[in-house]
Each structure stands twice: as structure tokens, then as C-alpha cells.
Amino acid sequence: MDAVKIKKSTGDKIADVLIYIFIGLLSLICILPFIQTAAVSVSSGQYVNAQQILLVPKGLNVSAYRSILSDAKMVHSLFFTVFLTITFTIAGMIVTIFSAYALSRPKLKGRYFFATLFLITMYFSAGIIPDYLLMDNLNILDSFWCLFLPGLFSAYNMIILRTFIQNSIPESLIEAAELDGCDDFRILFQVVLPLSKSVLATLMLFYAVGRWNSFSDALYYIQSEKYKPLQLKLQMMIQSATTSESEADASTSPNPEMLKSASIMFATIPIIIVYPFVQKYFVSGVMIGAVKG
Amino acid sequence: MKIQNQTQTGATPRKKSLAHEIKECWELYVLLIIPVALVVIFKFLPMLGLSIAFMDYKPFLGFSGSTFTGFDTFKQVFSSMQFWQALKNTMLLNILDLLFGFPAPVILAIFINEIECKWYKKVTQTVLYLPHFLSWVIIGGIAAQILGTNPGYINVIIKALGGKEIPFLTDPTHWIFSYVFIGVWQSMGWGTIIYLAAITGIDAELYEAATVDGAGRWRKIWSITLPSLKSTIIVMLIMALGRIMGSSFDRPYTLDNTMVHDDVANVISMYVYNQGLTNFHFNLATAVGLFQSVVGVILVLLADKIAKLMGESGIV
Q: Distance, in angstroms, between A103 CA and closest chain B CA?
């Protein structure tokens, strides 16, 4: 059949333009706040105090970043958060892969029981005080472990991966491997995982971003400075800056406004760097899980 | 070789003993050890802690130093003005979120789908998804800078144009709208993914046939795209209704300030946090949390029932 190309009516063309403008404006609303914050973070104090910065930095200066990087506690927190995020992501992926693969196999005896056990966690949680008491009883309050262990299993991520395995990896392929004498470990690592790269990339992004971004568990459980993740540090800094609105001198030394902006950029930049690389994977990966799940 | 194997497996008797069946998938059980252990310890064990909602629990005495008090804690909760205020705040913000936050991704997805220019579509999508990946700490910090009053760059512009300063974040009524707007801003783009996926599934021939029949753009959106999205919209709406009592912590906490806290920002999750981990009223906080969880589960189950009654596949 020939593709019938029908000329667009004038009305449709106008609608086209309006839609392009509308989507463009929304995108600007999403990105401009970051550009503004970035501009403030690299401008010089006198212009910031005079409120003259609008999207374009004035009197370029990176003293705010320098002062963050010379703050030993902040640098420690950065390394701690990076370490926490990487180990958490690896361990979380292992837990997700193991549970999703096991639940995807029809031969698993008690599959319904395990699926129910996992799914309940999506709809009912005991709440923050029972969680807090558990951490206390396990003696992991105020340690690395209370930030690492509780979030490792995510029913949501497990469902996405399980749905992907069930829908996208032909059962016949797995059966053929089984007949060739492969045990489940080999099937998982040599057949299933190599075919699941896009969804695995997506889930890694979810784990890493989730861990990098959360601060409330640290707010509940952590007292010591050395275990405070970057986001909690940032939140405390923003709060103290809003409560004591002190007028800094207009010299080149960074004022609270610039420090705040620089810290915000500091916590945002890693995500902005990683995100575009993974985006092409997550759109396809998430869509598959979302449609079927 | 393979064929031979297959006939052999086919020849084994259908009925297998339980022990044999378990033996056949022992590797899967090995894989499940760590996930099940994590779920039991970190999701189910805390449920034992819910018992302190029925106790006269003192943090420094522990379980042994507490006595059973029945529903006394709940009576105390339900007679507390602060609790009802928190419940009211939660409901108000959630209903507004639903009203504005729910249709936004549907509309946006339909518009994104109308864009034919590939690079424009890709760039705008990337930008629109971005806020979803940033923490509420960052969003709260930026919101204070942009919408605040000192300096508050929107207000700087308003004043430069001769207008009066608007207390976006410090007046309760304005705060409600800022809260809802920021929520829509953060989740709108990401929310389109599920609808765009559903749109991809629509048969392209439908559009071609409609075009040949002389249907314009709006007619196609109205008569093809929207009806195709119906079941996705219904499932998402029902799930959203199931969450109407829930409350996240990060968003109200990071957008909160003393000027609006009591009147509008103090939602249940914040109330639980303050009662429990700031004032150490553990049993009170646990009781409120339990109340919220139970109502939440009932709403989800109810929503699922409605979905199934409407012929949708349901969610639980």
C-alpha cells in the first residue's frame, strides 16, 4: 500500500506550532531553575547580594566550590555517599536479579507464596517507629548498615525485572539450556542476564539515584557526622541558611546564598552526568515493565 | 542428541513427589535465601514493633518496662486536635495533587506524541524527565531560592516590573499552590512514560484510516488516542485513589517552614516524625502510623475491587 501523504490543513499547522511552543515552554520551566542556581553559584558575591543575577553568571568566581571542597567534612560526606551508593547499587542488583529470576521460573514450587510475601511489602509497612526500634534492636542504628540493608530489596524493581524476563526471554531458550544440562545459575548468568542489559541498566539507575537522593532514613537513624550522606548535609545547610538570614559582606568570599547554590549543584551534577547515558536504556526498559506490570 | 533428551524427559511420569519437585528447583531456593531474609527481617519483623501502639511504651525502659493499655493510645490520638489537623492537611494536599497532578501527564503525553521532529522530541523528553531524578532536598533548596522572598528571583522580577512581592512559600494559601505546582512540575514528565508506552501500542493503521477519512488532529486525539488510553488511565486513577491517605515525608519536609507548618504543611508523616523521633512519644507515633497504613491498605484493596468490577485487570 502506498503511504497516503495528505497535506496538513492550516488549522493543523497552527496546532503544530502551538504544541511545539507549549512543550518548549514546559521544558524551559523544568530547566531554568537549575540554570539560575548554577549561575548564582559561579557569580561573584556583590552581584548576588545586589540580586542582579538572572540566568547568566556575573563576575565569574568559583570560591563557593572552593570553600565546599576545602571543607573536610563535606568532602568526607561526598566520598561516603559515593561509597554507599556504589555498594548499595551492586548489592541491590544482586538481590533483585536473584529474586526476579527465581520468581520468573514456572517450576518454582511455592512461587505464589513467595510472590505474595514480596508484594505485601509494597502495600503495607510498619512505619518509621517500628523500623527505628528494629534498627535499635539489631544494633545497627547510627552505622553504615542502617542506610545499606533496609532498602536493598525493592518489590517494584523486582516486578520490573521479572516481567521483563517472563515476556522478553523465550521460555524455549531457557528450556533448551536446561536440556543441555545447564543448572539455574548458569542459565541466569549466561542466558538471561546477557539478554537483559537494557532493563538492568534502568534498575541500576533507579537504585543509584534512589540511594544518592534519599535523606530521610539518615535523618531518622544517623547521629554521627561521619555517616551523614550528602543530601542530609545539604538539607541541614539549607535549613540553617534560611533560619539565620545573615548579611554577608559583599566581597569575593562566598555568601550563604552562593554556598547553598554551589552545594545544590554539587549534589545535582553527578546525576546530570550519569542520566543522559542511561536514558536510552530506561525508556525502553521501563516501558516494557510498565505496560505489562 | 537434543531430540533424544527431549523424548526422554517426555517419557518420565507426570506425577512427581514433592521432594522430587523441590529437589528439581533447589538452585532457585538458594537464590531466594538473601531476598527472603532481607524481606523478613526488614519488612515483616518491624510489624512486631506495632504492638507498642497498644502499650504504655517508654523508649528508655524497653518492652519489659511497658504495660498493655489496649486502645488508650488510639483514644489519645483521636482526641488530639493536632492529629485531626494533620489528617486534614494530608487529605487537602493529596486531593489537590490528584486534581492537578493526575491529568497533567496524560495531556503532556498526548502532546509529546504529536511532535514529529525527532530531536526536539528527544531533547524535551530528556529535560521533562529530569526533575524526577533529583532529590527533594535539591528541589526544596531551589524552590526557596526561586520562589522565596529573600531574594526569591521570581519576586525580584515581579518587583522590577513594579509589582508587589508574593509570599509563595510563607503564606499558607500560597504555599498550598506552590506545593501542588512543584509536585506537578517534578512528576509530570516522568508520569508520561506509561501513557507514551500505551500510545506506542496503538495500531498505526487506525490513524491512517482516520486521516484518509478526513479526520483532523483533534478528532484523532479525541476518537483514537484517548479511547486507547482509557484502561491505562483508569488503572492509574484507581491506584492514585488508593494512595489518597498516604503521605510522603521528603516533599512536605523539604518545602516546610515555620510560617506554614501548623496550618498546612504538617501532614501525617511529619506529625509521626515529630511525635516519634523528636518528642519520643513512640506509642503515639506508632499508633498514628498504624492507622494510616491500615486505612491505606483498605483503600488499595477497595480500589483494586473497583478496577476488577470495571473489567480491568486490577493491581494487587
A: 8
